[in-house]
Amino acid sequence: MLLNVRSCKICYQAGHCGARSTRTVTPLRPAGPFFLTQGMATTVASPAELSVQSYILWQEIMKQVSSYRIFEDSKYFVDCPVLRSWEDVAKDWDKLNSEGLTKANLHEFVTMNFGLPGSDLKSVLPPGWHEVPPSWLANVPEPDMRDLGTAVHGLWKTLCRQVSPTVINDTDRHTILPLPHPFIVPGDRFRECYNWDSYWIIRGLLACDLVPAAECLVRNLLHLVDVWGFVPNGARQYYTNRSQPPLLSAMVLALWNVSNDDSLLDDALPLLVKQHRYWNAGNKAVRVRAGGQSKQEDDDGDGRDDRAGRSVKASHEGASEVFTLSRYHSDHYAPRPESFREDVQLAAMAGVSGREAALLFCDVASAAESGWDFSSRWFVGGDGLQYTRTTQIVPADLNAWLYRMERDIAAIAAQLGATQLQNEFMARASARLRGINAVMWSAADNCWHDLLLRESRGTMSSAPAQDTAFLFGNSVSSAESAVYDVELRSGVFASNWVPLWCGCAEPGSALAEAAVMGLQASGLVQPGGLLTSLYHSGEQWDAPNAWPPLVHMIIEAAVESGVTNGTALANQLADNWLHANMVAWQATGHMHEKYNGYVPGGIGRGGEYKPQVGFGWSNGVLMALLERKWKRAARET
Fold it and tell me: Is the full-model pTM beyond 0.85?
């Protein structure tokens, strides 16, 4: 089966976004084996049988490459473009197997038939590029910090890519998705455009007066929604079974606030509605009942548990009222291609196979959809990655982001005079906010917590029964009709305060003041930044790591809380973060994906891959924070 995908007209001229061209679409040739993805409507084309065989062949090669550990990083091979026709690859593969497969001849086969990762991308200058850094940098009094800002401005030109013409002409030989405009990559092993990373990259580009580059990135993501119905995790075929935190509407408005171009809003509005539909249908939508929570008493009476994954006591209004919320739920029930070896090993360690392994793979992919891959936040019933149960959890931050998205859509509709749509999404936002504050807010520790669905795991979804279904997309039963009782999850995670960033508490309100007090008392704010959690699980989205997007959201949340203590907290955290970035830069010469929250300038560790440098969202947060501090200071003098 082949996907009949569409793409906007492609502009290969570096430095030009061709923004309005996204309204014109031209058909691509039918996509080949790399586009056989679960959950997508397909149309049968004449070479369908060949395409299926090629996909199965790619899977077989990938599994052997993983088993023989040809490359240390599982992602390396799945990013390699195919150099020859699939017919020729199949002949070589048959010959190789008839001779007897060894690590040496498998490595030679890969070298002959596959290109290097990233060889199907071109390095280009960001659209609108200028060597001169933004003028507000001259206001920064510390020479070292001013120099760092100048250097990070220059990093954008090292991270900008564009797909090669072969990606458009021979889509069946590439896992990279054909994007119409240049884009910024995070860096290192992350060679493609990513979903939620892009928000902070855009904020940094706008701080650097690179508006055309920011627009190209937004237009690429809108294009992905047009083709796939949502923004995938990243611009790779193997990421199209899941998304990432829904921040596209925030990106659109961040760009519009600078450009004031209503044509952007006109193009974006129907696609944002389409993206919203994705997050509120099928297995992603859950109906929960307020009241009836397990109110387990904690040992020390402070309303918190000392470990993640247990319930906390909380009082709620609206008992027995039913709210529709959302959760992360990938459509993938097999090992992730980009982490195939790791997922197979995890299932073996957990001692599961068949349906139970499929459920674990789905929960692991769903954790990747959250952006928090991986964290004790998703553990249920034990400590360790094998206890990942993401689909049993209704996240506070996801629903806060969707609340913000609903308000954004309403605001865009109002700007464009679409009153009916404005009213619809204001009502949706109001209903979601009631749910968030009714069932997720804990007055015991002044924050919003995730929810645990109380039904047994097997009733929440059904995995395909056969391995072939994993590959070709049997649908998963919907949970939309069920109503779940829930438990309020405990645990101190930075995500507990993301709803403050999304406007779930009115500025200056008692709720906002309580949330700021909770953040101050949480223990998350440290000399090196903001801890992701208080738990040392060994996973990268836990202590001691501090992640740029969480730091930035919490700083902005504290500023916008309308609480005096919030402003002071934001300034303290921003100064700590800028200092930590400076220390690390001076020691290593790099901007890093994550940092050590306890140690200023310390590098983040843990997780299933080595620490990465570059780095897209780190650069964006640094420049946004410097702009916030020094552009504002210039206006006030």
Answer: yes
Using CB atoms within 10 Å of the CB of residue 417, give its burial: 0 to 12 exposed, 13 to 18 middle, 19+ buried: exposed
Q: Which of 408, 405, 501 is nearest to 447 (CA)?
A: 501
Do 539 and 468 meet the contact criterion of CB atoms below 8 Å apart?
Answer: no
Residue 130, SS3 per DSSP: coil
At 353-408, the pLDDT tens digits run 999 999 999 999 999 999 999 999 999 999 999 999 999 999 999 999 999 999 99
Residue located via tokens 């097999």: 334
Closest by CA to 96, choosing from 60, 67, 52, 51, is 60
Q: Are 324 and 423 in contact (CB under 8 A)?
A: no
Distance CA 212, CA 111 (A): 38
Q: What is the mean pLDDT of the chain?
A: 87
The pair of three-digit structure tokens given for residue 420, joined into one six-digit string: 């009916």
Tell me how far apart the terminal alpha carbons of the chain are, to the nearest angstrom. Answer: 64
- Distance, in Å, from the CA atom of 53 to the CA atom of 564, rounded to the nearest integer, reads 63
User: How far is Cα 113 from Cα 163, in angstroms, rounded to an integer?
Assistant: 20
Is-contact 570 504, C-beta < 8 A?
A: no
Q: Report which of 617, 493, 596 is spatially closest to residue 546, judged by C-alpha positions.
A: 596
Average confidence (pLDDT) over 421-441: 98
Check 331, 593, 608, 627 and give the catalytic one. 593
> Using only C-alpha atoms, what is the Rg of the chain?
24
Query: Is 373 an annotated catalytic residue?
Result: yes
Catalytic residue among 373, 450, 556, 608: 373
Lowest mean pLDDT among 17-26, 252-261, 280-289: 17-26
37 phi, psi to nearest 5 deg: -125, 145
Reported as a single tens digit per residue, the pLDDT across 121-151 is: 999 999 999 999 999 999 999 999 999 999 9
pLDDT tens for 34-58 read 444 333 333 333 344 557 788 899 9
Is 600 strand, coil or helix?
A: coil
Cβ partners under 8 Å of residue 501, min gap 6? 400, 553, 554, 556, 557, 560
Q: Residue 512: phi, psi to the nearest 5?
A: -65, -40
CB-CB contact of 532 with 543 (8 Å): yes
**What pLDDT does residue 469 have?**
31
Beta strands 483-488 and 285-289 are: parallel
Which pLDDT band, with edges at 50, 70 and 90, does 608 fall under?
confident
Q: Tell me, what's the pLDDT at 307?
A: 38
- Identify whether 593 is a catalytic site residue: yes
Output the DSSP codes for 517-547: HHHHHSS-EETTEE-SBS---SSTTSTTEE-
Amino acid at 290: A
| Among 584, 618, 613, residue whose Cα is nearest residue 188 | 613
Compute the distance between CA of residue 230 and CA of residue 223 in angstroms, rounded to an integer.
9
Between 186-190, 452-456, 524-528, 625-629, the lowest mean confidence (pLDDT) is in 452-456
Q: Are strands 441-442 and 285-289 parallel, antiparallel or unpaired?
A: unpaired
User: In whole angstroms, what is the distance from residue 443 CA to residue 449 CA?
Assistant: 11
CA 490/CA 470 separation, integer angstroms: 34
β 322-326/160-163 pair status: unpaired
